[in-house]
Design brief:
The chain has about 500 residues and is mostly helical. The protein contains 23 helices and four strands. It folds into two domains: about 65-230 and about 250-365, no CATH class; about 380-505, Rossmann fold, CATH 3.40.50.
Amino acid sequence: MKKIKYLSLFFVFFLLTLLLARKYTLVTADLGRHLKNGEIILQEKNFSVLYKNFYSYVNPDFPFINHHWLSGVVFFLVKQFLGFTGLSFFFVLANLITLFLFFDLARRKTSWGTAIVISLITLPLLVSRSEIRPEVFSSLFSGLFLWILIGTRDGWLTKRWRWLLPILEVIWINLHVYFFLGFFIILVFFFEELIKKERKVKNLLDLVILGIITGITGLINPAGIKGLLYPLRIFEGYGYRLFENQSVWFLDKIVGYPPNLYFKIAFGILVISWVYVFIKRKKIMIGNLLFTFFFSYLGWTAVRNFALFGFFALMIIGENCEDKENQERQEDPNKETVKNFAWLSLAVFVLFIFFLLNPSYWISRVKPGLGLEKGDPKAAEFYLKEGLKEPIFNNYDNGGYLIYYLYPEKIFVDNRPEAYPAKFFDEIYIPMQEKKDQWEQKDKKYNFNTIFFYRNDLTSWGQNFLVERIKDSSWAPVYVDEDSIIFVKRNGENKKIIQNFELPKEMFSLTK
């Protein structure tokens, strides 16, 4: 019987690994910038990256709070010792540990088989964010906070475990902006204890003290109180619309985003689990109800929160399906074996149905591998080998790529909207790609020598800009690959490069 249980858990872990372990590219990823942050902090001892727009020559002194600087340090150290392959493995391992924490909470309240099925229902959400990002730490630390607080509440961990939370919060606040979830989770447990009919003053006092100490330790970050309050204002002045911050409803209207369907299914099952609780007149866990409202809201309003929703849904559905009588009843081993096989069959059936709903989504995600794509650095290598010169004009998507490969050269923009004033995007970045006169005006101001562009930029202004530059006799395309295109200005400095590498216009499509 135990073998069946462990094999089923191994199967879920294997699927998670299969869907997350893939070769990746830095071309449009944040990872390159995170790695460079870590390198600059550890090797150059330059802490300017913590408080200003260090990489841009356009807004070099624009103040912002680098709320994820420690993630860069961690990623850089892992990459330094284990390479990009080790970094991929580290990311997968962090997700596996997180899944185990939430699975363990679910299986303690319901049957092992039920927890396995719920895990598979939430699996498409858990792998929806397969890029190596600091947010992986927020999922992990949320799991740790929840696991410790539930364990100490229910008695399978001693109360001493709670005092790990302030230490974890010190680390968390420097890893990712979602550190506020630690405070929120403690607050939920305090409220849950407060409304109990048989509440214990000592438990309330312990949670108050724990919350205060955790809040104080949250001040231990480079920005102090500003860093602690940063989640309240991070989206202020955003001048650029990010795909990951869009709601389920919005994306349903403009693009077929496959995880939306799986989110709706998981959300529906979560709602049904609450209906089951009310019908059975079971004890309502107010904390889980608050978590349901909060993380459902996060999921519906921004697809970047799908994984967090999935992890919490796993735990909540498991607790809602709690069956104490079944747990306490000693069953015949043969009957229990049959039941486990039945649950496993249901799990396989769920997986099969999910596959049929969108086969191309699953097939496209199964690309086993670890580390960096072999050809990832080739565009940057061309730039460096041929001695191309700055100032560079680049687009939003490939800023992190250029930071990683070309530093200490400064770039025009990168994918941190909070590091630039909103008017930069509204009045400079977008108009100069849409309008010829705006481009010429900014070209005259910044005297661009090189254009280094992510050629799959799907924004209307990005596509317009590429077509116009191909037509523009002032610029010569000298490099192109699947992801990047490089132009140099027709001047004496670039004459030799143009002679050797200019690409014929006929090879490009000029339709917008």
